[in-house]
Structure formats: C-alpha cells, structure tokens
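User:
Note these tokens:
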Amino acid sequence: MALLNLVYRDQLFPRDAYRRTFDALLAGGDARLACRCMVGLLALAHERGCEAALAQHLEALLEAGELPHLDTLRERFGPAPSELPHVEVRLGSLVDYDALMDQPVMGGVA
C-alpha cells in the first residue's frame, strides 16, 4: 500500500502507460489490489526486460477499456518453456554424509 501515498510515485513509473494503468486500477475500487497489481507489473517489466513492450500492451488494454491481469501478463511476457534450461538435481546418499562425519578434522581434534 506504500505505492498509494508515495510522494514521487509518478516518477517511479517508467512510462505514462504505467501511471494511467495505476489510475485505472485505482478507479476499479480496491486500492490494495491496485497496488499489488501495479507492483507486480513494475517487477515484471524489470525482471523480464519488457518495459517498453509491456507499456504498449497496457496502452492497448486501456484503450479497449480493460484492466490488466497480472497472471496473464506473466505468461505473455515470460520465457517460452522451450527456452528454459533443463536442470537435473542429483542428491547424494545420506551414507556419504555419514562417512564424512567419521573422518578426522584437518589439523585438529575431531
């Protein structure tokens, strides 16, 4: 909710589309949800490096009289599943860790 009364809030928005979106969200009636959505949009723009493209999409939504849905925008501006690396994690056996506990400490008393 800090975004609601932030003195320099308008300077925080990278483009006018973000300010207009926040105003439209606030006009929706629930200030808490508006703040949460706007912070999510700003984070999305920063983390995914899509600030300009997201601003264009927000403009189109506003012109159509629609409000943004954060989950939908995360999917739209997120990486394609084929671009994500495959990570395989292999956990060591607990027996290996137990064996380490039985080893003397280097240069000192165990």
Remarks:
- The chain is about 55% helix and 0% strand.
- The CA atoms of residues 42 and 92 lie 40 Å apart.
- The helical segments are 9-12, 16-27, 31-47, 51-63, 70-77, 94-101.
- The radius of gyration is 24 Å.
